[in-house]
Amino acid sequence: MTEGTKAGFVALIGEPNAGKSTLLNRMVGAKVSIVTHKVQTTRARIRGVCMEGNAQIVFVDTPGIFRPRRRLDRAMVTAAWGGAADADIVVLLIEAHRGLTEGAQAIIEALKAREGAQPVALAINKIDKVKAEKLLELSKQLNEAYPFVRTFMISAERGYGVDDLREWLASELPESPWFYPEDQIADLPMRQIAAEITREKLTLRLHEELPYQLTVETEKWEEREDGSARIDQVIYVTRDGHKGIVLGKGGETIKAISKAAREEMTEFLGRPVHLFLQVKLRPGWLDEAERYTEMGLDFRDGD
Ligand SMILES: Nc1nc2c(ncn2[C@@H]2O[C@H](COP(=O)(O)OP(=O)(O)OP(=O)(O)O)[C@@H](O)[C@H]2O)c(=O)[nH]1
Ligand SMILES: [Mg+2]
């Protein structure tokens, strides 16, 4: 069907932890992008597809934008701006309780430098965390800082204001045939979704720098005759000490992580999963092109 259909890309950008992945999942109606309470959870661009009437909205979740210090940071931030550049509409997420932070200001400055590119809408997120009176003031302040085409007050987690945002986005999209089959929700390969699920469980359980210093890859995926899947994954860590922490006393930590990941994979696939995790020391993975490719990032962007 192409007649009367609309389709386009909507990039979700913002500081780390703003709630971009939560919003993507809410729009799609399924968890396709991992979410944690920590910053820098999302590493690459993840597309989620959502139908609204005759419009197909392809949401592009991006890594948070911050001042990059390391190679991986730079590749992530480049991926985020790349997501914005390719979109029909950009939505900037700002956390209601944090307001116009230095980081948000820096993003707005960068948006100004590319002004005229695409329309940018503002979504003030996490409104469940603040009093209503504060919101008007914040909205005014942000709209003085940048000419947003629209402002939405939302709670991605609770779903407030999300329908309005989706309807408006659908109305703004150009006429176009759909890009994906109507029932497709994500364009990430299953093996990568499975790796992300495990990385989420690791990030939730491990502290400080450790989640940043590890990556997860699906090495083998075997379909079994009984309808179940056997998934073998490797967790690369940069230091020997990290290996012990990931494993935990008597292997307890890795066991709990594996259980949580397996349960989520089983739910996602709708059939039993046998998950095998291996932790490997790989001190230089943060400087290996192949690791970036696996994550969906461009290695050169990290230069
Ligand atoms: N209270 C509240 N919390 C929210 C809301 N939306 C997201 N969160 C929480 O904010 C945290 C970060 O959410 P994410 O969706 O991972 O944020 P992100 O912008 O994708 O973060 P990065 O991938 O690190 O850039 C999680 O703990 C979410 O549960 C909201 O509307 N209200
Ligand atoms: Mg995210």
CATH H level of the largest domain: which superfamily?
P-loop containing nucleotide triphosphate hydrolases
The ordered H/E elements are EHEEHEHEHEHHEEHHEH
Contiguous helical run count? 9
Task: Name the ligand types.
Answer: guanosine-5'-triphosphate, magnesium ion
Number of domain modules: 2
Helix content: 25-40%
Total strand count, please?
Answer: 9
Q: Which class of the largest domain in CATH terms?
A: Alpha Beta
Summarize the main sheet. Answer: 6 strands, mixed
What's the overall average pLDDT, rounded?
95
- Strand percentage lies at 15-25%
N-to-C CA distance? 43 Å
Overall outline: globular
Which radius of gyration do the C-alpha atoms yield? 20 Å
How would you briefly describe this protein structure?
Keywords: Cell membrane, Cytoplasm, GTP-binding, Membrane, Nucleotide-binding, Ribosome biogenesis, RNA-binding, rRNA-binding. The protein is of the alpha/beta class.
Please tell me about this protein's structure.
The chain has 303 residues and is α/β, with parallel strands linked by helices. It folds into two domains: 167 residues, Rossmann fold (3-Layer(aba) Sandwich), CATH 3.40.50.300; 113 residues, GMP Synthetase, Chain A, domain 3, CATH 3.30.300.20. The strands form two sheets. A six-stranded mixed sheet has the order 2-3-1-4-5-6, sandwiched between helices. A three-stranded mixed sheet has the order 7-8-9. Helix 6 packs antiparallel against helix 8. Bound molecules: guanosine-5'-triphosphate and magnesium ion (MG). Magnesium ion (MG) binds next to helix 1. Guanosine-5'-triphosphate (GTP) binds next to helix 1.
